[in-house]
Amino acid sequence: MLLVNLGTPEAADTQSVRRYLAQFLSDRRVIDLPRWKWLPILHGIILRVRPKRSAKLYKSIWTEEGSPLILHARRQQVALQERLSETAIDVVLAMSYGRPGLGDALDQLHRQKVRRLLVLPLYPQYSSTTVGSIWDGVQRSLTGWRDVPELLFIRDYPVHPDYIAALVARVQHYVAKHGEPDRLLLSYHGIPLRYAEAGDDYPERCRLTTEQLKRRLPDLAIT
Hints:
By secondary structure, the chain is of the alpha/beta class. The chain contains 8 helices and 4 strands. The chain has helices at 14-24, 35-61, 68-83, 102-111, 131-142, 161-178, 193-197, 202-216, and strands at 2-8, 92-98, 116-121, 150-153. Strands 2-1-3-4 form a 4-stranded parallel beta sheet, sandwiched between helices. It is globular. The two termini are 35 Å apart. The mean pLDDT is 95.
């Protein structure tokens, strides 16, 4: 089982952030502008200005063990491996950008002669900018394999009962501790409108999750 998340710089310094942003913002799934138009902007402006500012923000959340995203992703990996301890399933972690890289993780699995591979993007709602990018990365890596494994790719799970139950439990825990809020505001990352108009159903997948929470928490005002 291959768990895949977005990724993070290796360190909270300008050079590491620049390297991470260069990889992230070069992905055609993330920025789909023609390369002749986008790359001069990326390398001539963005990667000269943004890394220093972003590095300061990363430093404000960095932990002694490194990036919070890597820290929590590793904990997820370990916890899931423990849950699957009585099976023959190995749980491997990869990132779309940065390390541990998706290509490196698949190379490792290839050396282990994996025959059945389940890819689980850690995004409950599909978007071409996230899950679609993982799909591209997996396909690129598998292209050179002569012994392609049986592949199961989880697109998303916006209304899976266990996912919704976990969200409901978090909200109920908060209410029990702090009292009922005036309103529960659900926030999702954004995508360009034209991506949605071109067929990316991310907004609809987010609406499905929101509607499920409204049904399960009818006494709360949810937006």
